[in-house]
Amino acid sequence: MKKVLTLLLLGSLATPVLADECALVIEGNDAMQYNQTAMSVPATCKEVTVTLNHTGKLPVANMGHNWVLANTADYQAIATAGMSAGVDHDYLPKDDPRILAHTQLVGGGESTSVTFKTDGLAGKELTFFCSFPGHFALMKGSFKVG
User: Fold this and answer.
1) Strand 111-117 vs strand 126-129: parallel, antiparallel, or unpaired?
2) What is the C-alpha to C-alpha distance for residues 127 and 70, in angstroms, rounded to an integer?
């Protein structure tokens, strides 16, 4: 019995633990930058969880960040329309069908996550961006499923 337990333990130690390829993490900072300009998941992911960590110190009212996913052709129009929505609505137009997924707006030291389905997203040109006024010009990148 002792040999069996030892072998099981050794076997579990030798097996590498793989990170969940359907869970992504991105950081935003007080310099109005994400730490990535491209994100991707394999087509085998039926759902994706994106976690945004705001690594800065400024409050949400001054330097809030979120993570929004849209078709590349739509993201600028969504960001522009969101400016008038205000901080209480995460600077996003309410119930806009062009928004594929989004997190809440967070300030320095805070984190937020969103989980969304990937049905129909494979092969599309997608862009992620921050909808805080003026941020989308710098805080954006490509997102790929597949």
Assistant:
1) unpaired
2) 6
143 CB neighbour count, 10 Å cutoff: 25
* Main-chain phi, psi angles of 137, to 5 degrees: -65, -35
The per-residue b/e assignment along 65-82, b for 16 or more CB within 10 angstroms, e otherwise, is: bbbbbbeeebbeebbebb
Angle at 49 between CA 66 and CA 72, to 5 degrees: 55
| CA–CA separation, 35 and 135 (whole Å) | 14
Going from the C-alpha of 120 to that of each of 44, 85, 97, 139, the distances in angstroms are: 12, 28, 14, 25
Structure confidence by residue, pLDDT tens digits, 84-127: 999 999 999 999 999 999 999 999 999 999 999 999 999 999 99
Residue 112 to residues 3, 18, 24, 88, Cα–Cα distance (Å)? 46, 23, 12, 15
Residue for token pair 């994400």: 34
How many angstroms from the chain centroid is the CA of residue 91? Answer: 16
Per residue, the 3-state secondary structure of 44-85, as one string, reads CCCEEEEEEEECCCCCHHHHCECCEEEECCCHHHHHHHHHHH
Note the pTM of the prediction, 2 decimals: 0.86
